[in-house]
Structures are given as C-alpha cells and as structure tokens.
Automatic annotation (TrEMBL), chain A:
Membrane-crossing residue ranges in chain numbering: none
This protein's record includes keyword Ubl conjugation: no
Protein name, UniProt field: Sugar ABC transporter substrate-binding protein
Signal sequence coordinates: 1-22
Annotated keywords: Signal
Annotated coiled-coil segments of the chain: none
The keyword S-adenosyl-L-methionine belongs to this UniProt entry's keyword annotation: no
Highest taxon, organism lineage: Bacteria
InterPro entries xrefs: Bact_solute-bd_prot1, SBP
CDD domains membership: PBP2_TMBP_like
Alphabetized SUPFAM superfamilies for the sequence: Periplasmic binding protein-like II (SSF53850)
UniProtKB/TrEMBL annotation, chain C:
GO cellular component: plasma membrane
Annotated InterPro entries: ABC_transporter_permease, MetI-like, MetI-like_sf
Keywords, ordered alphabetically: Cell membrane, Membrane, Transmembrane, Transmembrane helix, Transport
Family stated for the protein in its record: Belongs to the binding-protein-dependent transport system permease family.
PROSITE patterns according to UniProt: ABC_TM1 (PS50928)
Location of this chain's protein in the cell: Cell membrane
A matching Pfam family: BPD_transp_1
Domain ABC transmembrane type-1 intervals: 69-283
Superkingdom per UniProt: Bacteria
Protein name, as recorded: Sugar ABC transporter permease
BP GO annotations: transmembrane transport
Length: 446, 315, 294
C-alpha cells in the first residue's frame, strides 16, 4: 500500500511538472533539474533482490533469449514473456485492458509512434520518477527524444530503425547503374529499371503503411505534427515542407507507374522481393534479420547504401514501457532498464534477437561497426546504419493519437496512392480526419 | 394442441421425428426410379470441384517447405514431400503451443457446444411442452436476439466481463457460447412433434415425475434434434474467432482460430522485426484444424440429417 | 389437479432457467451495457460525460457508417440470392434422384462449411494472388487475363465468393432436408392428376421449401450485416481497398480499438443490430406472407 501511496504522490507531482513545463513551452528532452527521480534509484535496483513475477508483452521473436540472461542474473525475478499479437493487435489488447482497469501486463513493448498515445491516456508510468533519466547519455539522440513525451520519459529505447537504402547489387550491376546518391538519381534509376524490365519497379509503396510514409516526411525535413504541452496539437500535412517534398518526389513516380503500389509483408510481396522485382528497398536498419529469415536464397545479392540525399529518419523501432497497472513497479522498471541498457543484454538483443541497437554502447563500438554480416558478404552494413543513425533529423514528433491517425491512413493517403498518386489530395484528406478526431477528443487543434 | 398428436397411442413404441410426416433418413435411396443423368452428374461435378479445389490446394500446400511454397505451382507438389516434417513442426513450434490451442478448442467446443445443446434442448422442450407464465414473451425475446449481431456485442461483452473479473479466462469464451437462441428455436420446433403430448400424459398418470419423464422418455425422442443443435453449435464454437480474439490475452488460452491467425500475422510480418518464415505452419495447422470437424460431421451424419429434416425445416 | 399444474409450471421454469441464465449473461447484459455505453462520451482530454442520444444523431449523419451499410446491403442483394439459388438448384438436383453417387455430392459440397471462416479467408487470399497465387498460375498456364480479384472493383465479389463457398453446402442441406420431408403421397396424387415435373416443382416442392428458404434468408441477413472476418483477413493483402469502414462491423471495431471511441462504437453496434432486426423482419414479411416463424 505504501508504494501505491507513493505512486499517487509521484503522479500528482509529475502532472504538476508537466503543466509547469508546458507553461514555459517545454519542448522535447524536458528540463534538467526537474527530471530528478521521485523514487530512490537504490530501491529500484533493490527490487530485483526480492522475489517477483513480471509479465512482459512482446512480439519480438527470440527475445526470450535475452530475458533468460536476465533471469540468470536475477534468479529472484521470474519474467513471463507473452506474445499477444503483433504491434496493432497488441495495442488493441493494451487499450482494452487499460479501459477495463485490469488485465494489462507489467511491462510492454511499444513502438515509438504509439508511445505518446499510451502515455497521455495514463497507461504508462513516467520512468523519470524512477531515475531512468540518468540513462540519457547511453542512447542515440534520435531514440531518446522519442521516449520523451510531454516532459516525461515513458519508455526505455530498445531498438531503432534508422532508414537506409537496401539494393540488389546484382540487378543494378546488370543495368550498369550505381546506388543513387540523390533523389534525382533515384528518379532516373526508376525510369531505367522499368524500361529494362516492364514487370520490375525501382521500389514499391504500400498504401496501408503509414509508418514508412511519415518516415519519408521526416527524412525530407518535415514536422507535420507538433504537440505542445498535453493538449495543443498542430497538424500540417498540407503545407509542411517535408510532406510536400514527399508528395513531389514520390507522387510523379507513382503517377508514371515507375513505382509499384502494393500491399507488403504478405506472401505475394515476399515472392516479389525474392524474385528481384524491386531492386531498391528503403527501410529501417532492422531489415537484414528479416531478409535473412524470410528469403535466405537472396544472400549475397543485397547491399546497403546511405539514404539518397544523405539525411535519414527513424522507421519503426520500439521502446519498453512499464504500465500503470504494474504490480511491482520498481522491479518492472529495473527489468526494462536492464533489458535495454546492460551491455550483455544489448549485445544479445543485437546478435541473438536481431534488433538494431538504440544504445551508443554498440553504435559507437568499433567492433560493432566493422562486424561482418554473413548475409552481406564482403561489406560492413553496420557502418552505414550507424552513420544513418547519426544523420537522423532531430525534433520529429508523433501525434498523441498516432495509433488512430495511422489506422485511417489507408482510407485517405492510401486511396490516392492506389488511385494514381495525387498525394496532395490524400494528405489533405488525412489531415481532415486527424483534425476532426483530435477535436472530438478534446484537443486544441491548429 | 393439434388433432394429430392426440391420435398417438400412449402405449405405442416411441416414434422419433414429427408425427405429421414420418421423415425418411436423408441417406436412404431416392424415392423415384428415374434414369441417371450423366449431364446432370457432370454439372454437379463442377460444383463439387468448386467446393473441393481450395481444400486440395491446402492439402498440397501442406506438403511444401517455406522455400517451395514460394516457387512451385499451387496445385502440384514441389520439390520434396514435407508434410510429416510440417506436422512435426506444427506440433513442436514454440514448445508445442499448437497442441495447447487444439486442447483449448476442444474444451471450448465440447463444453460450450455440449452445454449449449443441452441447455437449448431443455429450454426448447419447456417452451414446446409446457404452458408456463411468460412463455410467449420469452420466446419472442429469444427470437429477436437471433437477429442481433453477436460480433457487434463484442466490445460491451469485453467490458462487462472484465468487471466480472472473467476476462482472459475460459469462462469469457464459454459463457456467451452457452446461449444459442437458434438452438432453442430449433429444439422448440422439434420437441413439439417429436414428443407426443399423449405420451407425456400417460407417463404422468403412471405417476412419473416431470424430471424423470424428461430424462427417461423425452430426451431419447429428442436425440436427433439434440445432435443437430450440437453439431451446429460445435461448428460455431470451433470457428469462433472474434470473441476469443477480444476476451483472451494469454496465448495459452487461445483457440486454434486465433492462434492460427497470430501465426499468419507473424509469417506475414505486419511489423518488420516480427516477420518469421512459418507460412508452412499456418497452412499445415489450418489443415489439421479442419480434419476433426469433417470427421465429426461424417460420423454423425445419420443423426444430424434426420434432425435437420425434422426440426429445422418443419412447416 | 391444480397443485400438479402449479408444479408443472415450476418444472417448466426450471427447464427454461439455465437457458435464461446464460442468455441473460451472454446476450442481454452486454446489450444493455452497450446501450448504456452509447449514451456517454469519453474524451482523451476532458473525461467522460453524459451526452444522451448525441452518438445516435452522429451515426445518422456519419457517411463512413452509411457507406459501409450500403456496401453490405449491396452484398446482401447480390450474394445472398446467388448463393441460395445455387443451393436450391443443387438440392433439387440431388433430390431428383438422377445423379450418380448423390451421397458424394451431398457431403462434398457441404465440407467447406466445416472450414473456419478465418482459415477460409486466408486460403482464398493466397489463391486470389494474381502474381504468384493460383490465379496468377492460371493466367500463365492458359495465357488468359484474369481480373485482379483483390482490386477495389472486384473485392466485394471476391468476398462474396468466399462466403458462398463456405455456406452454399450448408444451405443446400437445409433445402434438401425440406424436400425429403415431402410425403410420397403428395407426389403420387400429383402424378395421378397428370402433373409434369415443372408443375410438381411449382406446386409441391416450392411451398414445402418456403420455411427453409425463410430460415436460410434470415441467417444470411444476420451473417451479411455482421460481415467481419473475411474482409479483415483480406485487408493484409489489399490495405487500400478494405478501408476501416468497409463493413459497419469493421467500422465499429476500428472505432473502439484503434480510435478508443468505445461509446460511439457502441452506438454504431446498436444501430447495426436495429438495422439487422428490421431487415430480418422485412424479409420475413416478404418471404412468408402466410406462414410465420412462430
């Protein structure tokens, strides 16, 4: 009971804090002195010595291997890893459990885009209260800024997905082409690829994939969503520079049928990927493990290059958060912390689970950078990824209801992608749906 | 009470089926001796092919490895025969979770469908054979409920059950499946004719109690109707997807449908890092999930066919 | 005599009680709860407030809801008559006794009913693939150009095909059972009157089939208006075709779980239930002017 009293107090102070921060226009990162822990860090660490059971929702295959290391080190703690479904499915369950007031896990994997929504609905514990703020310097800036919501820290970064360009070297070689360094070169290559083989396209867009679309806007320097405090939201998909650049770069290529429009991650798509139908795949740095597992026959055909234009953005990646329903918050926080920052753990996450790291421990490690990856013989892909991680543009923000916004992407932008590429129209429709929803939910929308 | 039923001899051996029209078992030889038509047989053969080709495809696909699935024709075998390997993988993947799902489905179906059929039989019998207070109103209420989309009630069901504290327990799946308004309707129609009023009266005069009459006489007469309802609730629970998807969190409690769909979304990515090549498991697992139901239908064919003809379609 | 009547009344209630109990928990309570939910509005900022019938007023003007409703109505108007017609034809043919090995047809066509809807949709999804699926192979093999079954123009038909495949055998059996229930004496009498097979079909078989037809149609109404599994499985293959409001039930699901609009979602669910009841009632009026279910 004592700890729940304490928690009530800490959330009250945290709320006051958030208001104070909002008042002085607190941006990402939060204040320094105010971020101090409300719970003694020693108590957090000490919780690992007492017997406890932690339920951890995650859909990452093989994460049990890293968790086993934790249980070996802290034999008093029993962690139950439960896979309740992939991303969207898990959020559905988490949302209902929160609504019902019981049934949520202690610890949950949550992607960065969904974090603000769960933080604002008071589903997650502010980890700053438990001293997690001191971990800041261990993580890549792009990862750390994404777990900062309304002046609090609501997750420990687990993996990131700095965007890079994967390309089929064998196919480009045959065309006498090199990996494009700019978006102009990319457009020229698109023509070349399709002319050489009308059934092939330089790449594809998925009309049901909002994550990649927003990552492109981010990569092009956009900030279409801005959140100030907890209630003021600006949505600017129509005039935002990044959103425009995205529409102007991809739109014409889709219109000229030089980029294919297709659903992804399904059987058909894997077959296309294996057949070399799309020689370029622009996506997050987590892709190698996925390629290797699903189309091992293409080993040695892929290479990795920096993004056209040189800048990058995050695509995917998740954090590990502690829910407000957690029974033993201290132990849960300590687990989330260890899992994602202990050197032994992050090595395991990378090599055994196949996640691309969020910590500088690995990103700056010369051994990691120069490591040979068997799927890409004779090249050093981690070097490219680590550089791309540094090239991620700062200050991107997601909406406090991004899960909803993403769900209606296919109704709006998806329609214009499918219908021939008038992206301006689709983005305007998306903005409309987002604004209407935001207003209904009581936000001040600009 | 109709004139026909009173004609029945109380002492006569019980005759199953409606009194008005003795029903021939469906599988008996067709009644008219007309010439067989090859043209008609061929035309119906097309329809049979339509029904079976997808299942043939599924069966053939279950013999392929992940690799061969991607590069061999759908309706013919690829390199190597991986069926047994796939079955082995299905049963051992993730510490044999498939077997758990199978067991769960069995539990939900047997308890859920069996319970629903029993409850509907008793209820339908009461409606048909007793004139009790509120009978008409209750029957109308139940009939109205048949039209309510069950899936549309899923969210309130979840919230309600979570207040009752039974979310993420087998009860959350079992309780709603125990109520089968259609089963009740079918049994009411069936019981009206299958259990002659005169027989009940005779038993009462002999001094038998109502419960004894039900369990020793009526239930036997109601058997075909019971089996019919059982099979339809069995299919409904075996196929149940939406409700367990929502009320269960723990994969250890999933039925096959939800588990297979989870495997499918794992196989098809959904989110990048999660994509793992278990498509053969999805296909083989699906095939294995269908087999028990088909077998059940084949074995119980005699019962449900007579139940159907007598109960569900009575005029 | 009076005492025994009272006791019998009690026994009847006892027999009916288990059903009433599960019915109350499984159907009535969630329904009442849904109606109650639908009268409130919960916002991320500002909490919960009582809004009366506002959610219903909103649903009446919500084009997203109407579009979904229109789509399932269209589906109902086309798929259901096709499926029932096919089932009826098959039942008549099997009943005619002119087939070789009729048992094989009866069971074979019925088998898809045992395939869970989710599995059926997964399976057909693979088959529809025009690049590497079975459809694509047919194109390659015969050099024909099949339409893209997963494109927006074809999607509803493709879903209709899955539903038809799953339920045609089930309906066929219901009709067949009704035909088998016709007593031989009726045919004999008709034959003595010199009636031909068309005449017999019209004046004996059709009236006998009417209750079965009604039952099958009512079930199709319910099934159609709550369409969910098939489109939501196909969504992974054609995300931009199957939108969040593709069917009213999907819309209710998306509102609740993706948009956290539990209250509005409950209102949509209740409205959908009402529409279903009304359509089912109208169908009953039209199909069975003289006969009634009760």
């Amino acid at each position: 009971m004592r700890s729940s009293m304490k928690h009530a107090l800490t959330t009250a102070t945290a709320a006051a804090l958030a208001l104070a921060l909002a008042a002085c226009g607190g941006g990402s990162g939060g204040g320094k002195s105010d971020d101090g822990p409300k719970v003694d860090p020693a108590a957090v660490q000490g919780a690992l010595d007492k017997p406890a059971t932690i339920t951890f929702w995650s859909w990452v295959p093989n994460i049990e291997k890293t968790v086993a290391l934790f249980e070996k080190k802290y034999p008093n703690i029993n962690v139950e890893v439960v896979n309740v479904g992939q991303s969207k499915d898990q959020y559905t369950k988490l949302t209902t459990a929160m609504k019902a007031g019981n049934g949520a896990p202690d610890v949950a994997q949550i992607e960065y885009f969904a974090l603000p929504q769960f933080a604002l609905t008071k589903s997650l514990v502010n980890l700053a209260d438990y001293g997690v703020g001191s971990l800041k310097d261990k993580f890549a800036a792009s990862a750390w800024s994404q777990v900062n919501v309304a002046g609090g820290i609501y997750g420990v970064p687990q993996d990131t997905g700095p965007m890079a360009m994967f390309y089929r070297k064998d196919i480009l070689d045959k065309l006498g082409a090199a990996a494009p360094k700019t978006w102009e070169e990319f457009a020229a290559l698109a023509k070349k690829v399709h002319e050489a083989d009308p059934s092939s396209y330089v790449t594809y867009v998925d009309p049901g994939d909002p994550g990649t679309a927003t990552s492109f806007m981010w990569d092009f320097g956009g900030k279409p969503f801005k959140v100030e405090g907890t209630t003021d939201v600006t949505v600017n998909l129509k005039d935002d520079a990044g959103a425009k650049a995205y529409a102007d770069t991809m739109g014409p290529l889709i219109k000229d049928k030089l980029i294919d429009v297709t659903g992804s991650w399904n059987d058909e798509w894997w077959k296309s990927m294996a057949a070399g139908k799309y020689p370029i795949w622009i996506t997050g740095a987590w892709a190698p493990a996925v390629l290797e597992k699903n189309i091992p026959q293409s080993k040695g055909q892929w290479s990795v290059a920096p993004m056209p234009g040189g800048a990058s953005a995050e695509n995917g990646g998740s954090s590990v958060a502690v829910t407000t329903q957690a029974k033993n918050k201290e132990a849960s926080v300590a687990f989330a912390q260890w899992l994602n920052s202990d050197p032994e753990a992050v090595k395991s996450l990378n090599s055994e689970v196949g996640l691309f790291p969020a910590t500088k421990v690995l990103l700056d490690d010369p051994g990691f950078r120069s490591a040979e990856v068997p799927f890409f013989p004779g090249s050093k892909p981690n070097e490219v990824f680590a550089d791309m991680s540094k090239a991620v543009r700062p200050d991107w923000q997601y909406l406090p209801f991004q899960v909803y916004a993403n769900s209606v992407f296919k109704d709006t932008v998806g329609q214009s992608l499918q219908g021939g590429g008038d992206l301006g129209q689709g983005l305007a429709a998306w903005q409309e749906r987002i604004k209407t929803y935001g207003k209904e939910q009581g936000f001040t929308i600009k | 009470m109709s004139a026909e039923t009173t004609e029945a001899q109380p002492s006569a051996a019980p005759v199953p089926g409606p009194r008005k029209r003795p029903v021939r078992p469906l599988s008996r030889k067709p009644r008219r001796r007309r010439g067989k038509s090859t043209a008609l047989t061929v035309a119906m053969g097309l329809m049979l092919a339509y029904a079976l080709v997808p299942l043939v495809w599924l069966t053939i696909s279950a013999t392929k490895s992940n690799q061969t699935l991607f590069d061999s024709p759908g309706l013919w075998f690829g390199d190597g025969f991986h069926l047994f390997e796939n079955i082995h993988d299905v049963f051992t993947y993730d510490d044999g979770i498939y077997l758990r799902w199978f067991g769960n489905t069995l539990l939900y179906s047997v308890v859920g469908a069996g319970g629903a059929a029993m409850i509907a039989t008793m209820g339908g019998y009461a409606l048909a054979k007793y004139d009790f207070v509120g009978r008409k109103f209750l029957f109308a209420l139940v009939l109205g409920a048949i039209s309510i989309p069950a899936t549309a009630l899923a969210v309130p069901t979840y919230l309600l059950f979570s207040e009752m504290g039974i979310v993420n327990t087998p009860w959350a799946v079992l309780l709603p499946t125990l109520a089968s308004p259609f089963g009740l309707y079918l049994m009411q129609v069936y019981a009206k004719d299958a259990v002659p009023d005169a027989m009940l009266e005779a038993a009462r005069i002999d001094g038998a109690g109502e419960l004894r009459i039900f369990f020793t006489i009526s239930l036997r007469l109601l058997a075909p109707g019971f089996v019919t309802v059982l099979l339809f609730t069995l299919v409904a629970t075996w196929n149940n997807y939406f409700l367990p998807l929502i009320v269960l969190n723990d994969p250890d409690l999933f039925p096959l449908t939800v588990g297979l769909h989870q495997w499918n979304s794992m196989a098809q990515g959904g989110s990048g890092a999660g994509a793992i090549p278990i498509l053969p498991l999805v296909l083989t697992g699906s095939l294995l999930a269908i087999v028990p139901l088909v077998v059940a239908f084949l074995f119980l064919q005699r019962f449900w066919e007579s139940g159907l003809s007598a109960g569900g379609v009575k005029q | 005599m009076r005492r025994s009547a009272v006791r019998r009344n009690l026994t009847a209630h006892a027999f009916f009680l288990p059903f009433l109990a599960v019915f109350a928990i499984g159907v009535v309570a969630p329904l009442v709860y849904a109606v109650n939910l639908s009268l409130y509005q919960e916002r991320m900022i500002g909490g919960t407030s009582f809004v009366g019938l506002d959610n219903y007023a909103k649903a009446l003007e919500d084009t997203l809801f109407h579009v979904g409703l229109g789509r399932v109505a269209l589906f109902f108007a086309i798929q259901v008559p096709l499926m029932l017609g096919l089932a009826l034809l098959a039942a008549l043919v099997i009943d005619s006794g002119r087939l070789r090995a009729p048992g094989v047809f009866r069971i074979g066509i019925f088998v898809p009913y045992a395939v869970p809807g989710v599995v059926a949709a997964l399976m057909w999804g693979y088959i529809y693939g025009d690049r590497f699926g079975l459809a694509g192979e047919v194109e390659d093999l015969f050099g024909v150009d099949l339409p893209d079954f997963l494109a927006s123009g074809w999607m509803l038909a493709s879903i209709g095909n899955i539903v038809t495949w799953s339920y045609v055998g089930y309906n066929m059996l219901i009709f067949y059972a009704a035909l088998r229930a016709i007593p031989d004496e009726l045919y004999e009498a008709a034959e003595m009157d010199g009636a031909g097979s068309i005449r017999k079909a019209w004046s004996i078989k059709l009236p006998a089939l009417r209750p079965a037809l009604l039952l099958a149609t009512i079930f199709s109404v319910i099934g159609t208006f709550q369409l969910f599994n098939e489109p939501s499985v196909l969504q992974a293959l054609a995300p931009a075709v199957i939108t969040t409001n593709y069917t009213p039930n999907m819309y209710a699901f998306s509102l609740a779980f993706e948009g956290r609009q539990f209250n509005y979602s409950a209102a949509i669910a209740v409205m959908l239930g009402l529409v279903t009841v009304v359509v089912a009632y109208v169908v009953q009026l039209v199909t069975a002017r003289r006969e009634r279910m009760l």
